[in-house]
Design a protein that fits this description.
The complex is a heterotetramer of chains A (297), B (278), C (659) and D (155). By secondary structure, chain A is α/β, with parallel strands linked by helices. Chain A contains 14 helices and eight strands. The two termini of chain A are 29 Å apart. In chain B, helix 4 (154-167) crosses helix 6 and helix 6 crosses helix 8. Classes of the chains: A alpha/beta (297), B alpha/beta (278), C alpha/beta (659), D alpha/beta (155). Chains B and D meet through helix 3, helix 4, helix 6 and helix 8 of B and helix 2, helix 3 and strand 4 of D.
Chain lengths: 297, 278, 659, 155
């Protein structure tokens, strides 16, 4: 399993634990990520609101680079925003001759969109990867009730993502299940978290985060699991005021790769669990204890 | 080359010896080293006269229409062009698949101008394939010639086609060679229907030209036999290709004879067809 | 050489004031083949017609041209006139020199010139006319009604009352359809069963109606007046000839599966009647769930039955019956909302039900005996949200059309909840409220007075939280987001054509519209006919409608059928397509073009030199062909031609104009 | 110039019996006025019109040809005009490709109620043809006094 890899900007900054967990897990299950040479920002979420051409061309450039250097490899990214932008450029280059022409003129190189763009969820839910995960899980997170939050951009728009179910996707739930944790059935898997407007319209956007957390808790979840550094950041950093408004305790937020890493034996330090805003290690430690492993995290 | 020729001879011989087919249609030598002729082999011994070289130009499929109700299967050497013709004939209910034995012979390119538009060298339908499929060569620009005529002014176009049809001798070789011309009696041969006159004039020749395009244009497999057969060397595919080009533009990628099921353009409709007659 | 007579009509001054008969008539006389030409004040009048008839015999005329008003006006008149003469009624052409000449042109000289041209066209065409003979087809005096809902029931009763035999076919074990499932009907709130079950009983008892339940149409051939329909009687495993419908067998059946009639809100045994008032009131065994039929172990019902009706070896049978006319009354089904609306939970929440499930819930004969209880825990809901247009008026996710009945039954549901559950609250989310019907707007007003809260906007998401359903949407009048916590949600879902409509319509050759409803022959003027002669439409198979409209259409379709069956034979137009077999190569280009499936390829014996061969040629069914001529334009060789509008005739017209 | 002065084009209009022919009749009932150039040939359906008829009309001396029928979806025979639409979309392009001026062939949907549309269409086509002048293309050899010998084989 080899992929051209588009890390995205968050991986380099706020998502340290996500990055470490990704490296840990992919290494263990034998997925080789070939980082795209000289990749650039995909432009999310500002570029396409300012210039349609820029919105298409920015993500297309790393894709074109990837196809040039590694023509046999599909592309994978771990961020939902990046995924949505990359996929849109791929989709447009395939379906709209004018858009392809525009893209190629701006990036000054050919882009044939021959390879697919995948998310980590696509990669990890494949049969081969799932088998590898099963083989590598050494300790189980028994009884950890997690709400899988996919975010809107992993599934929408359907004609771009090709997601079979926009309301109740199950790929992450199945991956979480492999760690021994329990994915709860809840209603806000793909609801907007208001990420783009958390800075400029906080009074409107904060409640969007809160209602997601609230529904997760109402359905018995003790943690939220995401597949995107931006989703993670947003759900985790915007919990100030949540307790006051809802009377509910704050919620730890993990990336699905962190859960996998811990289940495969990674220590808290190895994946920098201490970098979380909402204390995260405790819930995992409790789950490990329940499984009888008793291994300190 | 001779290896392939040998395979063809062996295959025909066996089919005839086993009584699988009544006869085999293939190519045979002529007095001229750069010509072959279609041959009809009806004995195992005759198979030795089959040839396969770059001069095996004629499309053999048309001969099937001369024997639509055979007692035994007919063996036919089929390249891409023959197979597309057969598909079309099956769709047009002219021949039955079960009365044919198609000996697939991937084409290695022939020395004929008719092959310039070839997009499919390998048979699309066959009972046996004598050798490995060939890679398809990049065909010439499919509608290049049509675009050339389109670029002219209306009067220039009229002069162009007028000039073409002034030279037409109305021999109907184009029709006789065309694998999708399958009427029992062609309208131009009828006295009574009177769709058009038989006289040899520019007007009647032109009308024959446009009518021919209309009759075969949405089923044309682009084999180029009509132009090859034309003794006056007239560029008459310019008419059928125009039909195909317009159909392509109206309804998306359109090629005929790729299978034996697809309806032709004028035989069906789409509620969402373009409408310019409002 | 033909002997043509030309008769120029003045139409009072309508023609003669612009077109000069004194120029036209002599000009006509000079045209090739014309042996006589005359003009007269009113050709269509009694003396005018007499003059034509006299001239025909006097001058040995064998075909005529009448230059007069539009053929759409008097072609039939003059054809009738010719019936009393020596010449065939189709040896006639009309030159339209009134509507298309004297009335639209002012310049007398030029109008007269044009009239001469029009007459010349008609003269040329008529020279190629040939005698045509109308065929008459016998009418089988029996009707088939497909579908035993209220539309089929009404149509069958009307036809039977008029004295004709009817077969009423239903694929379920009982007639009754959707109306039998409803509780009350808007706007009068009379009990649905009370008005529909007596009709069901009438059907069962009517001497002219033969009920064929648990049956499906297997194939249809033939045409108006004589359809041959193969009907498949599914295996019932119960001998209905001796069964009295006592119901003993149902009591001890160990199998329990979801009840179709109660839409999964209750269970039924494997041997069952669809519902207590079923007609026929006799059970069938559902072979898919019966233990005896599946595993060969059980047989309890057979032991219980005092008359020995149970027959596990029963098999499906196919019978072929003849009919003169067919009524389609196949009705509708509700869309599968769970597959379309993931945002409403995609079927995961038990307390979101469809309007029809609510009908069963509120129905005294339903699973809760009429108590409004929510399915999850059997509690009475305090707050109910009703969502309208679920799947309707939603081109992106559902259907683009309006389902027509939902506005009214949504109001009815609100009314029933508020009446049965005092203190409850009902919110209705709507796009528009449409109440075009007698007493409908008043009913809607009353519902609002009762306390139903109408909120204009769609629901964007429903989710479960803290034991309730949160309905999130927009109040587009206030321009704000709203969220309502409900105990139960009712989705008023779109109607769509019944499953299986595609197969049935293609057997009949009837067209469907873009939404798969059966296409009527003309949206205004022939709303209960299909374009296939002898096939009529009743009820929602043609498009969404409520009960009053359904019943009206059923009676209208019945009237059409009665009119047809009252005749013993019917004349067909002889102006239809004809095949010249010698020319036909059997390419089949015409077959797919015919909208009536009138052309088939037929094998004929022929000779090829000394050899006898069988070959296929096109064959036109004169009962089905309507004479449009589309096939002739597709026929390259001209083997197909349209009688009355032959290629040769039209070419003559063209040539004549260009002279 | 001399060719078009005082020139009145000859137009044949193939009209379907159920829509356009009825619309033309309605124009008469309403006493609408339009040029005398157009002669209607009645056909049951626009789908009945064989492309051969159009070629023949040009050959025999019509200056313009119209094919008119019901609007798509309204065909009396339900689907006839969908085939008309395809057939004549191609025909129009083939004629133009062969050098016939686009103004000489027109296909139009005119319903039974669109008397005004019939009038306007006829007026428009007739005006356009008046400007174009007589059609010489596809004409068969004119009998006497024509410019015989100018073209190739028998004009």
């Amino acid at each position: 399993m080899r992929y051209s890899y588009f890390p995205g900007c968050s991986m380099e900054s706020t998502a340290k634990s996500y990055r470490l967990a990704t490296e840990y897990v992919m290494g263990r299950i034998g997925v080789e990520l070939v980082e795209i040479e000289d990749w650039n920002c995909c432009g999310a979420t500002s570029a396409h609101t300012l210039s349609a051409a820029m919105g298409l061309a920015l993500p297309a450039r790393p894709l074109a680079m990837a196809e040039l250097r590694e023509p046999g490899l599909d592309i994978v990214t771990g961020c939902a925003s990046c995924y949505a932008r990359l996929r849109l450029s791929m989709h447009k280059a395939r379906s709209d001759k004018a858009a392809k022409y525009l893209i190629e003129n701006v990036i000054a190189m050919p882009y044939e969109a021959k390879r697919e763009v995948y998310s980590f969820l696509d990669v990890l839910s494949g049969e081969e990867a799932a088998a590898a995960i099963k083989a590598k899980v050494t300790r189980r997170l028994t009884g950890l009730k997690a709400a899988c939050y996919y975010g809107c951009l992993n599934v929408r728009p359907a004609e771009v993502t090709g997601a079979p179910d926009r309301e109740n996707p199950m790929a992450m739930d199945r991956i979480v299940g492999l760690t021994g944790a329990e994915a709860v059935d809840w209603a806000f898997k793909t609801e907007c978290c208001g990420a783009a407007h958390q800075n400029d319209a906080a009074s409107v956007s904060r409640p969007l985060v809160w209602r997601i957390l609230k529904n997760a808790q109402a359905n018995g979840a003790e943690a939220v699991v995401t597949a995107c550094p931006m989703c993670s950041l947003n759900l985790e950093m915007r919990q100030g005021g949540y307790r006051k408004h809802t009377g509910l305790p704050s919620m730890p937020v993990f990336s699905v790769l962190e859960l996998l890493a811990v289940a495969m034996g990674a220590s808290a330090r190895q994946i920098a669990l201490e970098a979380h805003h909402v204390p995260a290690a405790k819930a995992l430690a409790a789950a490990l204890r329940r499984s009888g492993g008793g291994v300190a995290i | 080359m001779s290896d392939r020729q040998e395979k063809m001879r062996q295959s025909a011989e066996k089919l005839l010896r086993d009584g699988e087919v009544g006869y085999v249609i293939g190519w045979g030598a002529t007095r001229f080293c750069d010509r072959t002729t279609p041959v009809f082999i009806d004995s195992p011994e005759g198979a030795a006269s089959l040839v396969w070289n770059e001069h095996a130009v004629n499309s053999l499929a048309k001969y099937l229409l001369d024997d639509k109700y055979p007692d035994k299967k007919i063996g036919l050497f089929a390249r891409g062009c023959e197979s597309r013709a057969v598909n079309r004939m099956i769709k047009d209910n002219q021949v039955k698949r079960e009365s044919l034995y198609l000996i697939g012979v991937p084409c290695d390119g022939k020395s004929s101008d008719r092959c310039r538009l070839c997009r499919e060298r390998n048979p699309l339908v066959y009972d046996v394939l004598l050798w490995e499929p060939e890679a398809n060569a990049a065909p010439a620009d499919r509608f290049e010639r049509v675009r050339g005529v389109e670029a002219m002014s209306p009067d220039e176009r009229y002069r162009y086609w007028g000039g073409v049809y002034d030279r037409c001798i109305r021999c109907y070789a184009c029709r006789n060679a065309c694998p999708v011309c399958s009427c029992r009696e062609c309208y131009v041969d009828m006295g009574r229907t009177g769709f058009q006159g038989k006289q040899h004039s520019r007007s009647d020749n032109q009308i024959f030209g446009v009518t021919r395009a209309f009759h075969v244009g949405d089923r044309c497999i682009e084999c180029g036999e009509c132009e090859r057969a034309c003794p006056m060397g007239l560029p008459i595919m310019g008419q059928t290709q125009k039909m195909l080009k317009e159909i392509n533009e109206l309804s998306g990628e359109y090629e005929c004879g790729l299978d034996a099921d697809s309806d032709s353009f004028l035989g069906r409709f789409d509620l969402d067809d373009k409408d310019e007659f409002m | 050489m033909s002997r043509i007579g030309v008769f120029v009509c003045h139409c009072g001054t309508n023609i003669a004031s612009v077109v000069d008969p004194d120029r036209l008539t002599p000009a006509a006389r000079e045209m090739p083949g014309v042996v006589y030409a005359a003009d007269y004040r009113y050709m269509c009048s009694e003396p005018g017609q007499q003059m034509i008839k006299d001239s025909i015999s006097e001058h040995g005329i064998d075909r005529i041209v009448i230059a007069s008003c539009s053929p759409r006006m008097h072609e039939t008149t003059f054809r009738k006139m010719l019936k009393g003469t020596s010449i065939n009624p189709y040896m006639l052409e009309i030159a339209n020199i009134r509507e298309q000449c004297s009335w639209v042109h002012a310049d007398k000289g030029r109008a007269t010139e044009k009239a001469i041209g029009l007459v010349r066209m008609a003269v040329s065409k008529v020279s190629k006319n040939e005698p045509l003979y109308a065929q008459s087809i016998p009418i089988t005096k029996r009707a088939l009604v497909i579908g035993g809902g209220i539309a089929g029931i009404q149509a069958a009763l009307d036809i039977a009352d008029a004295g004709h035999e009817v077969v009423l076919l239903e694929r379920e074990p009982s007639i009754g359809g959707k109306m039998a499932m409803l509780d009350k009907t808007f706007p009068t709130l009379d009990c649905s069963a009370c008005i529909s079950t007596p009709k069901m009983v009438d059907v069962g008892a009517h001497p002219n109606i033969r009920l064929m339940t648990y049956c499906e149409v297997e194939s249809v051939s033939g045409y108006i007046g004589s359809f041959e329909v193969a009907i498949r009687q599914k295996a019932r495993y119960v001998n209905h000839d001796i069964c009295t419908g006592c119901g003993l067998c149902e009591t001890k059946c160990p199998v329990k599966v979801d009840s179709e009639f109660n839409l999964g809100l209750s269970k039924r045994p494997a041997i069952y009647k669809l519902f207590p008032q079923a007609v026929p009131s006799k059970p069938v065994i559902d072979s898919e769930s019966c233990r005896m039929l599946k595993d060969g172990k059980c047989g309890i019902c057979a032991k219980l039955c005092p008359l020995g009706c149970i027959d596990y070896k029963d098999e499906a049978r196919t019978v072929t019956e003849s009919f003169g006319a067919i009524i389609m009354a196949t009705g509708y089904q509700l869309v599968d909302w769970a597959a379309m609306y993931g945002e409403y939970g995609g079927g995961r929440y038990r307390d979101i039900i469809s309007g029809l499930q609510f009908e069963r819930t509120v129905n005294a004969a339903g699973p809760t005996e009429g108590h409004i209880l929510r399915p999850s825990d059997g509690r009475e809901p305090e707050t109910v949200v009703i969502v309208k247009c679920v799947g309707s008026r939603d081109p992106k996710k559902g259907k683009s059309y309006c389902s027509r009945a939902c506005c009214m039954y949504a109001a009815k549901h609100a009314h029933q909840i508020l009446e049965k559950l005092p203190g409850s609250r009902v919110f209705i989310f709507y796009i528009d409220v449409r109440t075009p019907g007698k007493g409908y707007e008043e009913f809607y007003d009353q519902t609002r007075m009762d306390g139903a809260v109408y909120v204009r906007g769609r629901i964007s998401k429903i989710y479960e939280e803290d034991g309730g359903l949160v309905c999130q949407g927009e109040d587009s009048l206030l321009g704000s987001q709203v969220r309502v916590r409900a105990d139960m949600v009712i989705l008023e879902t779109a109607m769509e054509p019944s499953q299986g409509i595609e197969g049935l319509t293609s057997m009949l050759g009837a067209a469907r519209d873009a939404n798969n409803w059966i296409q009527e022959a003309h949206p205004k003027l022939r709303p209960v006919e299909t374009q296939v002669g002898g096939v009529f439409l009743a009820g929602t198979c043609q498009g969404p409608k409520d009960i009053p409209d359904t019943v009206s259409q059923a009676s209208a379709a019945a009237a059409k059928v009665i009119g047809l069956l009252n005749k013993s034979e019917m004349e067909t137009s002889p102006m239809i397509s004809a095949v010249e077999r010698d020319k036909c190569s059997g390419c089949g280009a015409c077959v797919g073009i015919c909208p009536y499936k009138a052309i088939t390829l037929q094998e004929i014996d022929d000779r090829l030199g000394a050899k006898r061969i069988k070959r296929e040629v096109a064959s036109v069914n004169s009962g089905l062909c309507q004479g449009c001529g589309a096939c002739t334009a597709a026929c390259r060789t001209g083997a197909l031609d349209l009688l009355g509008f032959r290629n040769g005739q039209i070419l003559e017209e063209v040539d004549a104009l260009c002279l | 110039m001399s060719l078009t002065e005082g020139f009145e084009p000859k137009i044949i209009a193939f009209c379907c019996n159920w829509c356009t022919y009825t619309g033309a009749d309605l124009a008469g009932l309403n006493r609408m006025k339009y040029p005398e150039n157009v002669h209607v040939a009645r056909v049951p359906c626009s789908g009945r019109v064989n492309p051969q008829f159009i070629l023949r009309a040009f050959q025999k001396g019509c200056d313009g040809v119209m094919v008119c029928g019901c609007h798509p979806g309204d065909c009396h025979y339900s689907t006839g005009n969908y085939f008309t639409r395809r057939r004549f979309m191609l025909m129009k392009r083939m004629l133009e490709y062969n050098g016939i001026d686009p103004g000489r062939f027109h296909a139009r949907w005119i319903s039974g109620s669109e008397a005004a549309k019939f009038r306007d269409t006829v007026a428009e086509v007739s005006e356009r043809l008046r400007k174009l002048g007589p059609n010489t293309k596809y004409r068969e050899a004119l009998r006497e006094g024509a410019d015989a010998g100018k073209g190739g084989a028998g004009i």
